Amino acid sequence: MKTAHQEETTEGLNANTSASHPNTSQISSERQRGSFSEWSDKKVGGCWIKNNRKGDSYLSGRAKLSQEVLKKLIENGGNLNFHIYKNTFQEGNQPSYNFYIL
Fold first, then answer.
1. Residue 26 domain-assigned?
2. In this structure, is residue 25 part of a structural domain?
3. Does any domain span residue 14?
4. DSSP string spanning 21-79?
5. Sequence-distant (≥ 6) Cβ neighbours of residue 55 within 8 angstroms
6. 15-56 tens-digit pLDDT
7. Nearest to 43 by CA among 20, 62, 56
8. In a domain, 93, yes or no
9. What's the total number of domains in the chain?
10. Which domain covers residue 94, as residue numbers?
């Protein structure tokens, strides 16, 4: 019997399906690449942890807003939806946190 997810039927028990059906690790890496690309497109800047004269910490940073982001800002009545995530791969002078526009 042919099930809903099968694209074609095969004859015999030794049919090779690896070409038409990727294994779990292939699917996982494709999703990771897609997810990475999606978030890379949304990244607009970063924040660094700084300390004032009293020793209190704060975030200081920079964001570069594209024409597309500025258009979203206007369409949303001046409200900007964003996420800030810790940069777990921080090296050298890279930001402590990355800034993403949704």
1. no
2. no
3. no
4. S--HHHHHHHHHHHHHHHHHHHEEEEEEEEE-TTS-EEEEEEE---HHHHHHHHHTTT-
5. none
6. 444 444 444 444 455 555 566 678 888 899 999 999 999 999
7. 62
8. yes
9. 1
10. 44-101
Q: Nearest to residue 6, comparing CAs of 83, 29, 44, 15? A: 15
Give the pLDDT band of residue 5 (cuts 50, 70, 90).
very low
- The per-residue pLDDT for range 47-98, each reduced to its tens digit, is 999 999 999 999 999 999 999 889 989 999 999 899 999 999 999 999 999 9
Cα–Cα distances (Å) from 22 to 15, 25, 40, 76, in that order, read: 15, 8, 25, 41
* CA count, 13 A, side-chain hemisphere, 71: 3
Q: How far apart are CA 21 and CA 34, in angstroms?
A: 19
Q: In the prediction, which pLDDT does 34 show?
A: 62
d(CA 42, CA 37): 9
Structure tokens at 21: 């059906």
